[in-house]
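Why does residue order matter? Because the sequence determines the fold. Keep that principle in mind as you read this record.
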Amino acid sequence: MRADTDIRADVESELQRDPHIDDSLIAVIVRGDVVTLTGQTGHYGAKWAAEEAAKRVQGVRAIANEIQVKLTDGAMRSDTDLAEAVANALRDGMLTGADRIQCVVQDGIVTLCGDAPSGEQKLAAEKMVRRLRGVTGVLNAITTTTPISATR
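Structure:
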């Protein structure tokens, strides 16, 4: 078991390395191999990137991602505009299956539902959406007929 101080230092180092994250706005708390990320970011993609950075650190057993997404005025969109952007991104970015995926947007949180031909397509849809301007959260409720492969 690694010391909490070592895990914290490694998570902070991972956050500093990622150009998508403003690590000055994020605090890292570690207790018993459980990492809590707090603070704020200007877009959902950075919140997700911070979580992924923490996952890369050896000894991290669990993560509580409490980072708040605080959109700047230029990044805000109406739910209608965001729903249209999601639909367009899925249509333009997916090779197959985009017509079987729907989205519901409420307060910037995008819920993806429907079905995808594979687990990889399910993950690809989420990845496309979490980068869109105005997204504050993503719930991926897409079902698949083929499981996600072990190699990601």
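Residues 91 and 98 are 5 Å apart (CA to CA).
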